[in-house]
Amino acid sequence: MEPLLKWPGSKRKLVGRLAKLFNEVQPRSVFEPFSGAATLSLHLEVETAYINDINLALINFYQLVRSGHKFNMSGLSLEKHLYYQFRSELNDIITDPQFQTNEASKMRAAKLFYYINHHGFNGLIRMNKSGRFSTPIGDKKRLIEPVGLEAFSQVTAKWKFTNECYSELSKFNADVNFIDPPYLNGFTQYSTQKHPFQFQHLQAQMQLLDWQESLSGITIATNGLNRELVRAYRHRGFRVFSIKMPRSVSCKSDGRKPVLEMLAIKGFPKGCHVSRLIEGATPI
Hints:
Elements: H1 12-17, H2 19-25, E1 29-32, H3 39-44, E2 48-52, H4 56-66, H5 80-94, H6 103-119, H7 149-155, E3 160-162, E4 176-179, H8 202-212, E5 218-224, H9 227-235, E6 239-245, E7 259-266, E8 281-283
Parallel strand pairs: 1-2, 1-4, 2-3, 4-5
Antiparallel strand pairs: 5-7, 6-7, 6-8
């Protein structure tokens, strides 16, 4: 199924290029420690998945929809002053220390999060240093009603959702680990909650690579194309590729031109010709 949400760096295009690869292994479980839109797990509709993200509002949304919660855009508006009023309300709810124990607040937050996600600027998810959403209003002319809530609830019935830093996660033996962190030298303000790592710096990316050594199964990692990062992944036994992907967020149309990214893969069975199974990938 398609993701319910828009997300910066969404991997919709990449998932399509990996289709032949997944046909080879037919995974039944996926681990996404930096889930965002959870594009891969939803596309594969796996039986079990471990979905984690440090954005509390995102995980709250997933947990409620998985439990069968439904909502619509009634009571909301695209008037500019009301958009910022609703955004402020969402920020007040999720920064309240009692938020996670108040069911009414959690349901209201899920509705407002969907609203901000689909009606903010260009699908951008941005938070300031105080941990508050700062996404400006977009250019939608009508409210976008949620679709696919019931299907999501059915697909994710056996999935686990958590809101932690990746280094604090319990071990999960998945068929496929999909590691899609904030990119080196890239935009990282998706959330400030619980995050001790600054992924725009190489050292944090190396710590993440060290952590991946504990994972079993197949690992697929993405990142910006960087010489030192490529060298480090190859040293750890990954097969590394460059792949041209479109930018999903930019204030200018010419800022959304395709860019080369790194795709690193490890753990596929011997004899599996990985390079032939990825559309548009070039071995490095």
